């Protein structure tokens, strides 16, 4: 991992951070935390900076209702004084993405102090940002260094660890979606990056027992897996290696909560539940022969584009314009000639599709792993309604250009 940036995981990372700043002559900082992460780590980082008489602006945000959105981004940018500074993110996903975006747009670099193993995007170049009503992945930049205080990670709330595990274990479905998108749709693909993303998810499963007890070695392994997942996205140039159909379903739920000004839905928790759903579809896929698939595809009727547009406008009016404008795959399949070619490609590459699907664990295994960590395993446990489940499943496939298992299950009439 050191080929990308310095990453420290251990007990004395603040001292390592100070040494890094001295070596590179950083003396001006904008440190961003929320009230919770300030208490567990941010105050110590700020104190270490000020002990060296360095210039530090310390922005501590209210964690209540905190999202990487226009309000939060504006609050951080309003604290910035247009002086070149090293931005410092002390927190998990929301804080890191907020600093990733604001430092990039203000032409400053940043470093990250993760406070929980809750997300896999610490090393990513993309920030998950809600602009208007649409949550999307926006290109920014990666941190120039990461300092992971292991005692802080081990002591973080268990629900955050469970959330991070859900996000990381989803690499087993998202990487498979990515390869299937390549096999069927011809999407850009990199076999080496695919193998790394798949391995990140497999490693999480291997250390789940240790994660349950906050064993430092297992927690460090989990953080390494999360960093590796972020590197996969950075190396490929977008989120495809680590964000498949399960993420698109989760993003719809997250947006619905945001639109309704409802709190309590964590990204990794939503992704974990959606990954179980994706694994269930993969389980059904693995049971099919090529002849079974051919018979199902013969029965498939793709709604005309106009019908699909009307349905998107009715069910997701807040983001309908953006979704329709992206010319999503399922709308393109309303062209009979294109659909015919795709059906032929599915059948021609059926053995490769099945080999890819074999990497997805049984849904019962993913469910048991997440449950052992105290994480939610059903939409009901997320307080997601039946209607919200249906909308997310039916329209999540319009979010990104991925030929995900969600599109396949729709073609098969599941």
Short recap of the structure:
This protein is α/β, with parallel strands linked by helices. The chain has 21 helices and eight strands. Strand 6 and strand 7 (about 135-140) form a beta hairpin.
SSE diagram, text form:
Layout: E1 7-10, H1 13-24, E2 28-34, H2 35-51, E3 55-61, H3 70-79, E4 86-91, H4 93-105, E5 110-114, E6 126-131, E7 134-139, E8 145-149, H5 150-155, H6 158-169, H7 171-185, H8 191-206, H9 208-212, H10 216-236, H11 245-259, H12 267-286, H13 290-298, H14 305-315, H15 320-325, H16 329-332, H17 336-348, H18 350-357, H19 363-372, H20 386-395, H21 405-411
Parallel strand pairs: 1-8, 2-3, 2-4, 4-5, 5-8
Antiparallel strand pairs: 6-7
Q: How many domains?
A: 2
CATH third-level topology of the largest domain = Dehydroquinate synthase-like, alpha domain
| CATH top level class name of the largest domain | Mainly Alpha
User: What characteristic shape results from the CA principal axes?
Assistant: globular
Describe the sheet with the most strands: 6 strands, parallel
Mean pLDDT: 94
Estimated share of beta-strand residues: 5-15%
> Between the first and last Cα atoms, what is the distance in angstroms?
41 Å
The CATH architecture assignment of the largest domain turns out to be Up-down Bundle
Continuous helix count: 21
Kindly report the name of the CATH homologous superfamily of the largest domain. Answer: Dehydroquinate synthase-like - alpha domain
- As a percent range, the share of helical residues equals 55-70%
Low-confidence stretches: none
Which structural class matches the secondary elements? alpha/beta
Number of strands: 8
Strand order of the largest sheet: 1-8-5-4-2-3
Would you list the SSEs in sequence order as H and E? Answer: EHEHEHEHEEEEHHHHHHHHHHHHHHHHH
